[in-house]
Hints:
The chain is an all-beta fold. It has one domain. 0% of the residues lie in helices and 64% in strands. It contains no helices and ten strands. The strands form two sheets. Strands 1, 2, 6, 7, 8, 9 and 10 form a seven-stranded antiparallel beta sheet that branches. Strands 3-4-5 form a three-stranded antiparallel beta sheet, with no helix packed on it. A hairpin with a 4-residue loop joins β9 (94-105) and β10 (110-119). The two termini are 20 Å apart.
Amino acid sequence: MADLPGQLTTALPGGGIALSCAKPIEEGARAALLYAPGLFRLDITPREDTLKIQVRNLSSGPCEWTDGGQPLVLLAFDGPALSAHTLRIDVDGREVRVLVSASRETERGLMRFVAQGLVGAPA
Length: 123
Protein backbone atom coordinates (compact mmCIF):
# COMPACT_ATOMS: atom_id res chain seq x y z
CA MET A 1 0.00 0.00 0.00
CA ALA A 2 1.49 3.34 -1.04
CA ASP A 3 1.62 5.95 1.70
CA LEU A 4 1.53 9.73 1.62
CA PRO A 5 4.75 11.47 2.66
CA GLY A 6 4.71 11.46 6.47
CA GLN A 7 2.11 8.66 6.70
CA LEU A 8 2.51 5.27 8.33
CA THR A 9 0.13 2.45 7.39
CA THR A 10 -0.23 -0.82 9.28
CA ALA A 11 -2.39 -3.79 8.31
CA LEU A 12 -4.29 -5.10 11.33
CA PRO A 13 -5.39 -8.66 12.08
CA GLY A 14 -8.82 -9.33 10.58
CA GLY A 15 -8.40 -6.93 7.67
CA GLY A 16 -8.44 -3.52 9.38
CA ILE A 17 -5.92 -0.76 8.70
CA ALA A 18 -4.27 1.75 11.05
CA LEU A 19 -3.20 5.08 9.50
CA SER A 20 -1.08 7.80 11.08
CA CYS A 21 0.34 10.99 9.55
CA ALA A 22 2.01 14.18 10.74
CA LYS A 23 2.82 17.20 8.59
CA PRO A 24 2.90 21.00 8.54
CA ILE A 25 0.47 22.71 6.15
CA GLU A 26 0.62 26.39 5.21
CA GLU A 27 -2.52 28.50 5.65
CA GLY A 28 -4.62 28.44 2.50
CA ALA A 29 -2.88 25.36 1.08
CA ARG A 30 -4.81 22.14 0.53
CA ALA A 31 -2.98 18.95 1.46
CA ALA A 32 -3.78 15.25 1.75
CA LEU A 33 -3.46 14.18 5.39
CA LEU A 34 -4.63 10.53 5.32
CA TYR A 35 -4.83 8.15 2.39
CA ALA A 36 -6.30 4.66 2.14
CA PRO A 37 -5.93 3.44 -1.48
CA GLY A 38 -9.20 2.31 -2.99
CA LEU A 39 -11.16 3.80 -0.06
CA PHE A 40 -10.65 7.52 0.70
CA ARG A 41 -8.32 10.49 0.97
CA LEU A 42 -8.70 13.08 3.73
CA ASP A 43 -7.74 16.60 2.59
CA ILE A 44 -7.19 19.56 4.93
CA THR A 45 -7.13 23.29 4.12
CA PRO A 46 -6.30 25.54 7.10
CA ARG A 47 -7.53 29.12 6.93
CA GLU A 48 -7.22 32.01 9.39
CA ASP A 49 -10.04 30.97 11.71
CA THR A 50 -11.43 27.84 10.05
CA LEU A 51 -10.38 24.40 8.97
CA LYS A 52 -11.82 22.95 5.77
CA ILE A 53 -11.98 19.15 5.81
CA GLN A 54 -12.81 17.18 2.67
CA VAL A 55 -13.18 13.43 2.23
CA ARG A 56 -12.58 12.19 -1.31
CA ASN A 57 -14.23 8.89 -2.17
CA LEU A 58 -11.75 6.60 -3.94
CA SER A 59 -13.99 3.52 -3.81
CA SER A 60 -16.61 2.31 -6.25
CA GLY A 61 -19.15 2.25 -3.41
CA PRO A 62 -20.87 4.94 -1.36
CA CYS A 63 -19.01 7.27 1.00
CA GLU A 64 -20.56 9.36 3.77
CA TRP A 65 -18.86 11.23 6.55
CA THR A 66 -19.79 13.23 9.61
CA ASP A 67 -17.73 15.32 11.96
CA GLY A 68 -17.82 14.85 15.70
CA GLY A 69 -19.37 18.27 16.31
CA GLN A 70 -17.54 21.19 17.85
CA PRO A 71 -13.75 20.78 17.86
CA LEU A 72 -12.10 20.41 21.22
CA VAL A 73 -9.97 23.52 21.82
CA LEU A 74 -7.28 22.48 24.25
CA LEU A 75 -5.33 25.72 24.45
CA ALA A 76 -6.21 29.18 23.19
CA PHE A 77 -4.45 32.52 23.05
CA ASP A 78 -5.04 35.02 20.23
CA GLY A 79 -7.38 32.44 18.70
CA PRO A 80 -7.24 28.65 18.88
CA ALA A 81 -3.69 27.36 19.20
CA LEU A 82 -4.26 23.65 19.83
CA SER A 83 -7.39 21.75 18.82
CA ALA A 84 -8.71 18.28 18.03
CA HIS A 85 -11.38 17.17 15.55
CA THR A 86 -13.09 13.80 15.18
CA LEU A 87 -14.63 12.29 12.04
CA ARG A 88 -16.51 9.17 11.15
CA ILE A 89 -16.32 7.94 7.57
CA ASP A 90 -18.42 5.12 6.12
CA VAL A 91 -16.90 4.07 2.81
CA ASP A 92 -17.67 1.01 0.73
CA GLY A 93 -19.17 -0.80 3.73
CA ARG A 94 -16.21 -0.03 6.05
CA GLU A 95 -16.27 2.23 9.09
CA VAL A 96 -13.36 4.63 9.63
CA ARG A 97 -12.76 6.62 12.80
CA VAL A 98 -10.39 9.61 12.49
CA LEU A 99 -8.80 11.99 14.99
CA VAL A 100 -7.11 15.15 13.66
CA SER A 101 -5.08 17.32 16.04
CA ALA A 102 -3.85 20.76 15.00
CA SER A 103 -1.53 23.39 16.39
CA ARG A 104 -1.09 26.83 14.86
CA GLU A 105 2.21 28.65 14.39
CA THR A 106 0.88 32.14 13.70
CA GLU A 107 4.25 33.78 13.14
CA ARG A 108 5.14 31.21 10.44
CA GLY A 109 1.69 31.12 8.83
CA LEU A 110 1.30 27.39 9.12
CA MET A 111 -0.43 24.71 11.10
CA ARG A 112 0.96 21.38 12.20
CA PHE A 113 -1.36 18.39 11.94
CA VAL A 114 -1.33 14.89 13.34
CA ALA A 115 -4.03 12.47 12.17
CA GLN A 116 -4.81 8.90 13.10
CA GLY A 117 -7.38 6.73 11.39
CA LEU A 118 -8.68 3.26 12.10
CA VAL A 119 -10.27 1.55 9.10
CA GLY A 120 -12.54 -1.32 10.08
CA ALA A 121 -12.34 -4.73 8.41
CA PRO A 122 -14.43 -5.31 5.28
CA ALA A 123 -18.01 -6.34 6.05
